[in-house]
Amino acid sequence: MRLAAFVAVGAMALAACGNTEDPGSATSSSKGGLAVGLAYDIGGRGDKSFNDSAANGLDKAKKELGATAEEVSPNQAGTDRADKLKGLVDSKKNPVIAVGFKYADDLKKVAAANLGTNFAIVDDGSIQAPNVANILFAEEQGSYLVGVAAALKSKAKHVGFVGGVQSPLIQKFQAGFQAGVKSVDPAIKVDVQYLTAPPDFGGFAAPAKGKVAAKGMIDSGADVVYHAAGGSGSGVFDAVVEARAAGKAGTWAIGVDQDQYLTANDSQKKVILTSMIKRVDVGVFDFLKKFKDGEKPSGPQVNDLKSGGVDYATSGGYVDDIKDKIEAAKKDIIDGKVTVPAKP
Amino acid sequence: MISPLLLRRLGMGVLAPVLALVMAFVIVAIVLQLSGFDAFGVFGRMAQVGFLDKYLIRSLDKAVPYFFAGCAIAVGFRMALFNIGVEGQYRIAALIAAWVGAKLSLPPVLHVLAIVVVAMAVGSAAAAIPAVLKVTRNVNEVVSTIMLNFILGGVGTWLLVSYLRNTSGTGNNTETALIPPSGRMPAADSVLNAIGFQVPPGESVTGLIFVAIALGIVLWVLINKTRFGFGLRASGLNPIAAQASGISSKGMIIKAMLLSGALAGFVGLPELLSNNYKFVSDTFPQQLGFTGIAVALLGRNTPLGIALGAFLFGFLETTTGALQFSANPALKIPTEMALVMQGAILLSVVIAYELVRRFELLLEGRAVAKAAEKLPDPDPEPAGAAA
Fold this sequence. Notes:
The complex is a heterodimer.
Chain A: H1 2-15, E1 35-39, H2 50-65, E2 68-72, H3 81-90, E3 96-98, H4 104-113, E4 119-122, E5 132-137, H5 139-153, E6 158-165, H6 168-184, E7 189-196, H7 207-219, E8 224-228, H8 233-245, E9 252-257, H9 266-269, E10 272-278, H10 280-292, E11 299-303, E12 310-312, H11 323-334
Parallel strand pairs in A: 1-2, 1-3, 3-4, 4-5, 5-11, 6-7, 6-8, 8-9, 9-10
Antiparallel strand pairs in A: 10-12
Chain B: H1 4-34, H2 39-50, H3 53-78, H4 86-103, H5 108-137, H6 141-164, H7 189-194, H8 208-225, H9 227-237, H10 239-244, H11 249-267, H12 269-274, H13 288-298, H14 303-323, H15 336-373, H16 381-386
């Protein structure tokens, strides 16, 4: 039986010999226009988080720059990231954007083998190549500002940080937040907790874990909790809502990535003091715009407070009373008077 | 001269895989058609793309770790031991091997050998835990190995984050340091080119494919031609009879699990020795241990069968991946469809083999009955053959 199967496969292989045309590369690409290849991280478009933020930037480029795009995402095991990048190059997409630092090793190789194509990678600064742009964000600067806000609002002189996954990237949020808090009052206590550690990335999608972590901090006396935990953040908000209901009136939560006041439900809205905004969409769009304008961006494309790539949110008006001080801190960073640490 | 019995065996042998493939095709075609895709277009495109050099080479490369995982699982399966823990075993083995490999400085061949030995040793050690639990406390290995997948995963993460990681890296990944060039495996490309393949630029097949072939042969000999293999198969078929005839079941459990764990140690080596040269916590291939279960079932636990199964899984992954770039929306199936296809094939194979086995039993029963009728006859030959 096994012999038969082997012969069958062998015959098929022989039959295909000599056929070297590659239909995989024969897909259409718009002539002269901006044909973008975008490789999402696992989950792809529709994750209401990181991938969607990149997708927003792409959609804007489709509308304003007339771009066409091929969008792909890797399989769950993550064994085909290199295949996806190669496929985008083969189907004549230029530039090719990889969303997330997990693409770093694969992109490095594919970029080196395809010098005629321009690449960009979000959140990775390790690749240095003439045809690779690194779309980076100064998450620590935005986190510093919400740290200032947290410190000014904390009556208990005790705040908390909930990180989704213990990785160097999320530690940047932690470092900036701690520095911001300490800049107001070095005596304020900062609790730090991560929900999971790699390779378990469940910490970005576990509201229950986020809630337990935030509740633990509130129970031990913290009254402002900042989360950098993606989808787990709604659990953090719920914990604060419950604390308010239990009589802890001055308890606040701080959101991340997007202005979460705008997407939260009505009860959560009341507790979201501000959000640290990371504009992946702006980073992606700016890169595409530069490319369209004839530039071939390469190297670090830093999106910081100065460029508007990171910022803090004012929706809800809860930080109106301390806005002057936050703006002063923002100005200090932009002017270079304050350098925010990126490592805790 | 071909006896009618041999002819029947051969017929059954062809029937099972053909039946399985037809069933799988029908299931997948229905799923595709219901999801709004052109099923026959998809199959046609997969067959067309899959045997182009580029994708064929890619499938071969992907098949290598699947083959190792399948072998690790199959060794257990042969004696009815379900080592579901290959997943955890290969990941911890790869992590430690990557770290040791980056620390060592040895001449080229020795360096690679040292990494292989470390991976095998760690895989074995990890598999020894459920083996000892089973032998001493009679803990079901399915439960203990599944639980150990989580425990070993956690231990690996802790080790990597706290001790083994490369702190001088510039990226956002949590990873070990690079294995130096002396500890890397040369690619198989030049050999493959010499024997008639054409490895296109940008593609490469891991040199471990030759290790896989050698390992497959060794495993076949070990299982079919040695005392150990006899004990393994006997314990799997009938543990009580095996024990009665002097085969220590406890000893066999320990040996089989250690061997399975050592083979699991190979699963992560293609990534370490010929692709990325480091263990990256976020991107190191996952779930290969579970894919190995499917590959072993598909290959009926024999090295050649596992090799074909591994290639089939690699083939499905590359061809469905290529379809993502199709210009025709009716062919642009999502990546997850590869999983659906793998599942459908697996299910069909299990069902088809069972159906054919029962059919065979039925025919055999009839043959025996026929022979029994003829018993007074002076020529007893057919009865002997039917047994």
